[in-house]
């Protein structure tokens, strides 16, 4: 068995598998609204398809269109992605126009062979149907291109909006504490910066048992610097307890 004959077949299988995988990954990214990743996967699929000679113009045009649709959904302030989307739609249009020329030639060949070669005549009839479908597809692609050209571009962000975006990003990037108890982390940090002074007159009433202990303790035995449970200590205690 000649190994050299198996190599092209193995390469074809590998390329077909790559195309299938890239297309599936792109669809998953698109369904998950990860449009930038979807674009990259569709582009990878397109590159492999271009290496093959058996991928139809319709298959290539479809991939160009999928790239354009994903690009359209990515927020774009400068309009660069929108221009890329239009470019991919135009690529799809050119591919389908080339396919239309091929089908028309096939249609003409079938018409001239009518009555002489039944098979060629049948092929010509099939080509006529495909010509109509391709013309309809080209019109739809051209409508999509015109639609993309009329999409209003987003206005550039003002300095105030940029500052707000940076502030929100800084807040969201705050990491939780090591034990994962971050429910009151931010509040604790704020309270610790400036603990509220305790007013002796506003001290809470103690229970009878506590009162008896205090009454039985002489002034000399009392701690001259009692430990007061501040809000910061309460929050810290609650965060330490699982």
TrEMBL record:
Respond yes or no to whether keyword Cytoplasm is given for this record: no
- Keywords in alphabetical order, please: Repeat, TPR repeat
Compositional bias annotation for Low complexity: 206-218
State the Gene Ontology BP annotations. CENP-A containing chromatin assembly; DNA replication-dependent chromatin assembly
User: Out of the domains of life, which is the source?
Assistant: Eukaryota
The segments labelled Disordered in the record are 104-135, 193-242
Q: Name one GO molecular function term.
A: histone binding
Task: Tell me the protein's name.
Answer: Tetratricopeptide SHNi-TPR domain-containing protein
Native source species = Puccinia sorghi
